[in-house]
Amino acid sequence: MSTATTTKVEALPVSTSDAGYGSIPANIQQKITGISFTKKTPVKMSDLSYVRVRYIGFDNKAHTGELIVHKKLAKDVFEIFEELYQKRYPIEQVNLIDEYKGSDELSMKANNSSAFNTRAIAGKKTMSNHSYGIAVDINPLQNPHVVGSKVSPASAKAYANRKVARKGMIMKGDACYNAFKKRGWSWGGEWKSSKDYQHFEKKIK
Q: Which positions fall inside the Peptidase M15C domain (predicted)?
């Protein structure tokens, strides 16, 4: 099992509660095929990694979650979540998007933090960076996507006002922001044309 201090990458047994990252186990490959991983997916299954992370939930208890990201970013994502765990940064839940039938809308409504999912950018034909496994969304209810007066998810309108920091909100300079930014990720909360407060992404070479 890979950790932040090693470079060996191997499949993780799904039954383990330990955190780590590696190639996607066969049963997880089966689970995501036809849902988040489709014929339209612009990367190969072998380009992706399965990441198990520790996090502190809104219940203030320790949990283990799972994400799929591009293999070149697996170490980053593992380290980021471990850093947030150590700092007790609250994250409500971390499940594969497949638990929500691949629906970004359902995942956001459940306040699920997720990563890989083959889909187009909302309202466009261009593939989202989530389709490449190079984007991560954190606490989408507290960190909505805001375009003008439109807020997604719609149930997160109260959090479009970023003047007052509340539990789960990502603010510039906080632990979540810093954990991603210092590793070269960009934050959707700093976009100009819209604000995607839940969204972090990183270009890969």
A: 123-202
pTM of the entire predicted model? 0.89
Task: Give the position of tokens 């807020």.
Answer: 151
Find tokens 């819209």 and name the residue.
194
Q: How far is CA 72 from the centre of its chain?
A: 15
With tokens 């201090």, the residue in question is: 5
Give the total residue count for the chain: 205
Q: Pick from 79, 75, 116, 77: which is nearest to 98 by CA?
A: 116
Q: What is the rounded distance in angstroms from the CA atom of residue 204 to the CA atom of residue 174?
A: 24
What whole-number distance in Å separates Cα of residue 142 and Cα of residue 5? 32
Sheet holding 48-56, edge to edge: 20-23, 48-56, 62-70
pLDDT tens by residue, 64-107 = 999 999 999 999 999 999 999 999 999 999 999 999 999 999 99
